[in-house]
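ok trying this again, last paste got cut off
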Amino acid sequence: MQSLIYKVFTRKYSLSLQADALVLLSTVIAQNELSTAEATKWLELLADTWTKREEGPLVEAGPLEELVAAVSAGTNTSVSTRGADPASDVFTVISAFDIPPLWYDPSSKTFTHPFSKAEILSSAEAKASLFRQRYDLLKQRVLRNENFTPVLFSDHDRRFRTLSTIDSLQGREGERFLLLGMLAQLEEGKLFLEDRAGSIELDVTSVGKRAHGLFTESCFVLVDGCVEDGVFRVDEIGLPPPETRDVTRNAFPNVNLFGGALSLRTNAQLREIEVATDNGLVILSDVWLDQPSTMRALRVLFDGFSHSEPPIAFIFVGDFSSRPFVAGSGDTTQYRDNMTALGQLIAGFPEIARTSHFVFVPGANDPWGSGALPKPRIAEYFSSKLESRVSHVTFATNPCRIRYCAHEIVVFREDLLKRIRRNCVLEPEEGTDVAKHLVRTIIDQGHLCPLPQRIRPVYWAYDHAMRVYPVPDVLVLADRFDAYSVNYEGCHCINPGSFSSGDFSFFMYYPVSRTSQYSKIPKS
């Protein structure tokens, strides 16, 4: 059986077993008289659970014995978290401030913790490293792309590209180069490309081929061209090639980049739960609770769902007021009363209030926050009465992440399209879908807000919370732009549009089929 144990733990899950751990597993298998098939299934459950617990690549006897005690030797055992709500490991909301600060280290080619604890008032080191970290993360992804990997002897017909750095261009005018760097305006009216080695002025007047996407300052791009008179003449420009989540997971199998506690259930068990409870997730944005028409529409919405199986969750995305919140004014009492009224409305539909999860993501008009991202959750002072009336409710940060069974969902409220379009340094191609441009830009950049700090500031030590890496299953980009749904690189991107200022539209997302449905409430 030792060869089987090595096959599962070492070859499949890249784990190293200490000698006493190997003896422990062999003993348990022998005592329970497991067949080869049963032992394989049990070992895979153990190895998968060990990986999810992030115990590290070295399997020691002590922690392994605790895990064996928690996981029955039977092959039909369901593993759940101890002392927790049975559904707590199925639907989890992750705050942006709880996501571990993992940064990519090019020298070791692994993720490390740059500081022990991220803080809003962070050190200057965090600011200096912010864009370097984005560059390192994108570069390792690009170099793993098939167009940039060296050719093997058996595949000699395939061509591949080589990335150059800006410092290697000196004295090599006329030669063609492919560069990866960040767009910046270091001088008024001039566009530059920056990488770790330096910067160079760009001439984009003769760009002949431009890939889809929106190009702004602080956006990372690939440029192809040559140097003439100290200026890089760009012939082609594009965004870094994306990478599917499966490729990323294979590259970093034991790293939890998404954050939050992982379920100890197997993927097969989680998919069984998805299939059994595929009632969909309801996604709404700009739910103005100070408008009577909004409350009437929400009553119609809840009433419609009360006659069938309640949805898995209602994801309410701000703004929750039609006008900006002003601290110290009458807005404080009014805002709290609006939240309380919503809680009373939900409580009027007992089955929904008892079984569905409710997630509230703040917008720019909601309290509090300094204007930088991530935005903290709505204060408990405003939400306490609503929370007392609903069984499963979470007031989240903006952005936030949701893990439902095997699904990873990112929710972000920002009028992104308007901001990015206004700050484009290159006009997008005419006659193309601007929503697809936006989705491609966010996924390819691996970042929710690829804009300069002066345009949309991000807390330096929490820039990792703005990542879109690995690519999630669902990306909700709540925007006042027209509603849309776009599939790109295995990610289903949704903009539910504005619920209150539009025609009371919303989206239903179904995890099993990975599809969404645009819906709206008729105006009475």
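PB: full thing came through this time. The first strand starts at residue 16 and ends at 17.
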